[in-house]
């Protein structure tokens, strides 16, 4: 496994809406990794421990979304600016097609991108987040704690939210708390977070969605063309595992892998098992290619 540092992998891409920052490692087919949301999140923190494994097989590109304190802010709602950032990023690097790994919000962004641009995503991997609550109440416990922190930031509130993200509380170290707290309380980053998870913004968004004639993304999953792997923590308290039922059943070519003793951060809490599962999915030959090979051999 390759050891990679923050500074050695950090890159910048100037665009017409500011600089997009990202981490790059490895050679091979391009793999775009999209981070989730929440206090102090970055792409590097989501995927830093996975990057070495995937860099042995892919050109890994960990995009930092605007509004989270790393890439230049783009203004507007972070979900909207994240979606446009993916297009600007891939266009800026001249990439016509990629595989995508998306954690939570990043999975939603990746799914929406694949729905809008079916020829640009070969395979899609999501980590919790996508879909809709079927049996469990929504929003989940982790989302409620996220709203509480966003409305009134405190170290105690941050620790409560971090504990809701994991199955094993030992993962919530003082180092993790410190790095998350420093970025989460940055004024610009906090203002951006309140556009997503502040109680007033959250309520307004829910009301707007209820009044809209536009179908939500989860109602369009039957149109998804990319082969899709849904990965989930069995003990996820942010997006409970019953949310996986709708995408698993409606995405035409979808697989679901549920990891035991695991919360929302599957790529961290079940690192080795998750990496093995995702690598097998991403490197597996298509059935058509396999059939062609067999015919040629015969």
Descriptive notes:
By secondary structure, the protein is α/β, with parallel strands linked by helices. It has 14 helices and eight strands. The chain has an eight-stranded mixed beta sheet with strand order 1-2-4-3-5-6-7-8, sandwiched between helices. Helix 4 packs across helix 5.
Question: pLDDT average, as an integer?
Answer: 93
Give the strand order of the largest sheet, numbering strands 1, 2, ... along the chain. Answer: 1-2-4-3-5-6-7-8
- First-last Cα distance: 38 Å
Work out the number of β strands.
8
| Helix count, DSSP H or I runs of 4 or more residues | 14
Sum up the overall morphology in one term. globular
Are there runs of 5+ residues with pLDDT below 50, and where?
289-298
Radius of gyration, CA atoms, in whole angstroms: 19 Å
Helix content: 40-55%
User: Which class best fits the helix and strand makeup?
Assistant: alpha/beta
Biggest pleated-sheet summary: 8 strands, mixed
Q: Beta fraction of the residues? A: 15-25%
| Secondary-structure element order, N to C | HEEEHHEHEHEHHHHHEHEHHH
């Amino acid at each position: 496994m390759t050891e990679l540092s923050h500074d050695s992998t950090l890159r910048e891409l100037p665009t017409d809406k500011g600089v997009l920052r990202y981490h790059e490692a490895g050679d091979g087919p391009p793999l775009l990794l999209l981070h989730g949301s929440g206090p102090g999140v970055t792409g590097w923190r989501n995927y830093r421990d996975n990057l070495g494994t995937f860099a042995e097989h892919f050109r890994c590109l960990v995009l930092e979304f605007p509004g989270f304190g790393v890439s230049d802010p783009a203004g507007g709602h972070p979900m909207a600016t994240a979606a446009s950032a993916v297009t600007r990023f891939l266009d800026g690097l001249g990439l016509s097609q990629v595989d995508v790994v998306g954690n939570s919000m990043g999975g939603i962004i990746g799914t929406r991108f694949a729905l809008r641009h079916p020829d640009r995503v070969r395979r899609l991997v999501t980590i919790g987040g996508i879909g809709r609550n079927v049996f469990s109440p929504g929003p989940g416990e982790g989302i409620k704690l996220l709203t509480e922190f966003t409305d009134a930031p405190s170290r105690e509130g941050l620790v409560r939210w971090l504990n809701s993200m994991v199955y094993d509380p030992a993962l919530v170290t003082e180092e993790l708390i410190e790095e998350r707290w420093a970025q989460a309380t940055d004024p610009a980053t906090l203002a951006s977070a309140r556009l997503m998870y502040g109680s007033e913004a959250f309520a307004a968004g829910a009301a707007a969605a209820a009044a809209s004639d536009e179908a939500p993304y989860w109602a369009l999953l039957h149109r998804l063309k990319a082969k899709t792997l849904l990965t989930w923590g069995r003990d996820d308290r942010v997006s409970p595992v019953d949310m996986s039922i709708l995408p698993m059943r409606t995405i035409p070519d979808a697989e679901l892998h549920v990891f035991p003793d695991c919360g929302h951060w599957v790529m961290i809490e079940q690192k080795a098992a998750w990496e093995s599962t995702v690598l097998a999915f991403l490197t597996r030959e298509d059935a058509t290619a396999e059939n062609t090979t067999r015919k040629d051999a015969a």
